[in-house]
């Protein structure tokens, strides 16, 4: 996983309000050379959360990025020194083995062979609660398919209350 | 179907599996007879019911182990007179006992018959041509299936063609700037490779570790994530330039665990996708819906999540070549969230691609939910009304005379 992806990832465990940025615990980092494309970097720059990137790059052993987000003139300028650094940080550093840690819950998502395992346990998935009108307002989980059919139209999905 | 000695007795009331030695016991039913019967029962149930026939329970009513001495394979066949879900205490697939497929129950990682033998046994039986009905995706796409999938030149070619088409429908700006895309259900990276060939960067998400391992071996250029799209995508808002998904979303229509509810999983998926796409971005899904109901379920959930757009069908008249693409747009007209502009916008683009493909493409309007069709603000216009009235007159109907009030504009609150 490269840092461009890390910069987009957040933890979506139920109840977590700020799952970004995931902390990187690096065990193995590899570098792979990628063609330099300033247009792509300029396009992506607006979407990058700068602080998270600086922090992430540092935890991968790369400390060349400036602490504060450079302004637009640096991005657009013909001098490519900065863009080269950005390029290296975003696209050439790979987290091969290690873990991503949710900043709020401390839940670890292991990274093996460069692939973060983002699968949630059942109890971490944003829950849906059903209100069974026949039995008052007591929330119950859907029990059987029969209930599901009966209650299909009174399902309330709590996960969508955010943001 | 030509099967060797699989013979089975089916006693649904016994709770313990009983081993049947097919060589000594008098056979009641042969598997060949049993399967069509069970499948028939399955399909005569209502749509709603059918979807929930696949579930997992710890104390399924097992009936018989069936041994096939020729291939030394064991599997368990079970008849479920009723759907019966145990809602609690299930943690992982492997830990619990069974997976029910239609009316069959198969033990997983069981000492007698291991999942790695069961699933291939089922595949060779060809009980269903739809992989979604055989097993959950993370079980179906095991190591051997992942390898088989990726080494078949036919599949590689089909997937590449589908991905190419999906990218075309994504209609990214032609400014040679690479974009940051999402490949949902990326599998072994066949679809992702097409994205790379077109010069873009991508993240791939898949639920099958085996498929992702093959992708790693093939050194795909995108980043890979192991995840379940039905749990929602954990991505920041507005960062992705577009998403494609090739032959994957229909998997969400099945409930593989008792906690699964297809409608809500689709909702979680589309909701989180909508959030992470940048405004004006598109998502294109090539899907194989099992039925009209399934197609509508997918489409409805997408529209409810806020997407505009509709269905594009390539080769609509060929059963074999027919391919469906769900083309979704994400808030391209910021001021009018729900007024059909988006819909008509994407239709125009679809028309462009129609020309390119020599008219092989049509936009299927029939399957679009009614809501979409009603939302054209401008209405049909006076000319259209006059023409329709004229047509009706010619048929001999009693039609009011035309006047200056015909098809006049109404106040907006009307
Ligand atoms: C037919 S394969 C297509 C793979 C790839 N897109 C291609 O074109 O070669 C479908 C893929 O969808 C994945 N899939 C199914 N359900 C999924 C889910 N809930 N979340 C993520 N991926 C899923 C499967 O693991 C499988 O790799």
TrEMBL record, chain A:
A UniProt-annotated Pfam family: Trm112p
Molecular function in Gene Ontology: protein heterodimerization activity
Superkingdom classification of source: Eukaryota
Oligomer status and interactors: Interacts with TRM9.
Family: Belongs to the TRM112 family.
Protein's recorded name: Multifunctional methyltransferase subunit TRM112-like protein
Organism of this sequence: Brassica campestris
From TrEMBL, chain B:
Keyword Cytoplasm: yes
Keywords, sorted A to Z: Cytoplasm, Methyltransferase, Nucleus, S-adenosyl-L-methionine, Transferase
Comp. bias intervals (Acidic residues): 346-358
Domain 18S rRNA (guanine(1575)-N(7))-methyltransferase Bud23 C-terminal residues, every copy: 328-411
Gene Ontology biological process terms, A to Z: rRNA (guanine-N7)-methylation
Gene Ontology cellular component terms for the protein in this record: cytoplasm; nucleolus
Listed GO MF terms: rRNA (guanine) methyltransferase activity
Residue ranges, compositional bias (Basic residues): 368-380
Gene3D superfamilies: Vaccinia Virus protein VP39 (3.40.50.150)
CDD domains, A to Z: AdoMet_MTases
Stretches for region Disordered: 337-414
UniProt cross-references to InterPro entries, sorted A to Z: Bud23-like, Bud23_C, Methyltransf_11, SAM-dependent_MTases_sf
Record localization: Cytoplasm; Nucleus
Record's keyword annotation contains Protein transport: no
Family: Belongs to the class I-like SAM-binding methyltransferase superfamily. BUD23/WBSCR22 family.
Listed name of the protein: 18S rRNA (guanine(1575)-N(7))-methyltransferase Bud23 C-terminal domain-containing protein
Organism: Brassica campestris
């Amino acid at each position: 996983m490269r840092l461009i992806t890390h910069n987009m990832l957040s933890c979506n465990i139920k109840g977590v309000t700020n799952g970004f940025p995931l902390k990187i615990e690096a065990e193995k980092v590899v570098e792979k050379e990628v063609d330099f494309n300033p247009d792509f970097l300029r396009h992506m720059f607006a979407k990058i959360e700068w602080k998270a990137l600086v922090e992430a790059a540092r935890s991968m052993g790369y400390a060349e990025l400036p602490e504060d987000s450079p302004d637009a003139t640096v991005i657009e300028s013909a001098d490519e020194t900065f863009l080269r650094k950005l390029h290296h940080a975003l696209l050439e550093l790979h987290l091969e083995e290690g873990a991503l840690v949710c900043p709020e819950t401390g839940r670890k998502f292991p990274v093996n062979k460069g692939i973060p395992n983002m699968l949630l346990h059942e109890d971490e998935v944003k829950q849906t609660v059903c209100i069974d009108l026949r039995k008052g307002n007591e929330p119950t989980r859907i029990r059987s398919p029969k209930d599901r059919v009966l209650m299909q139209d009174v399902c309330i999905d709590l996960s969508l209350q955010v943001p | 179907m030509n099967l060797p000695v699989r013979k089975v007795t089916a006693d649904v009331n016994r709770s313990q599996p009983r081993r049947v030695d097919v060589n000594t016991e008098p056979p009641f039913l042969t598997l060949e007879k049993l399967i069509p019967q069970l499948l028939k029962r399955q399909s005569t149930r209502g749509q709603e019911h059918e979807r929930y026939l696949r579930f997992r329970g710890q104390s399924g009513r097992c009936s018989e182990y069936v041994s096939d001495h020729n291939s030394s394979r064991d599997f368990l066949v079970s008849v479920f007179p009723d759907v019966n879900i145990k809602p609690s205490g299930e943690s992982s697939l492997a830990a619990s006992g069974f997976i029910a497929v239609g009316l069959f129950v198969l033990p997983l990682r069981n000492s007698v018959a291991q999942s790695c033998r069961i699933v291939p046994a089922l595949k060779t039986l060809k009980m269903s041509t739809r992989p979604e009905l055989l097993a959950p995706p993370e079980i179906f796409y095991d190591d051997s299936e992942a390898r088989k999938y990726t080494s078949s030149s036919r599949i590689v070619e089909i997937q590449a063609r589908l991905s190419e088409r999906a990218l075309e429908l994504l209609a990214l700006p032609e400014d040679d700037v690479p974009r940051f895309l999402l490949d949902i259900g990326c599998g072994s990276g066949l679809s992702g490779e097409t994205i790379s060939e077109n010069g873009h960067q991508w993240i791939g998400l898949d639920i099958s570790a085996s498929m992702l391992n093959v992708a790693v071996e093939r050194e795909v250029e995108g980043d890979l994530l192991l995840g379940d799209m039905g749990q929602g995508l954990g991505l920041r808002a507005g960062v992705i330039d577009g998403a494609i998904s090739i032959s994957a979303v229909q998997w969400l229509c099945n409930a593989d665990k008792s906690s699964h509810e297809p409608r809500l999983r689709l909702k979680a998926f589309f909701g989180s996708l909508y959030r992470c796409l940048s405004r004006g971005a598109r998502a294109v899904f090539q899907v194989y819906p099992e039925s009209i109901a399934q197609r509508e379920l997918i489409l409805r959930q997408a529209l409810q999540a806020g997407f505009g757009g509709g269905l594009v069908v390539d080769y609509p008249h060929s059963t074999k070549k027919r391919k469906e693409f769900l083309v979704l747009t994400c808030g391209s007209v910021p001021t009018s969230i729900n007024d059909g502009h988006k819909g008509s916008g994407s239709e125009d683009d679809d028309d462009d691609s129609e020309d390119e493909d020599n008219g092989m493409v049509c936009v299927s309007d029939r399957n679009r939910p009614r809501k979409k069709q009603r939302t054209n603000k401008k209405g049909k216009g006076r000319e259209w009304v006059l023409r329709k009235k004229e047509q009706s007159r010619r048929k001999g109907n009693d039609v009011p005379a035309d006047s200056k009030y015909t098809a006049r504009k109404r106040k907006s609150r009307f």
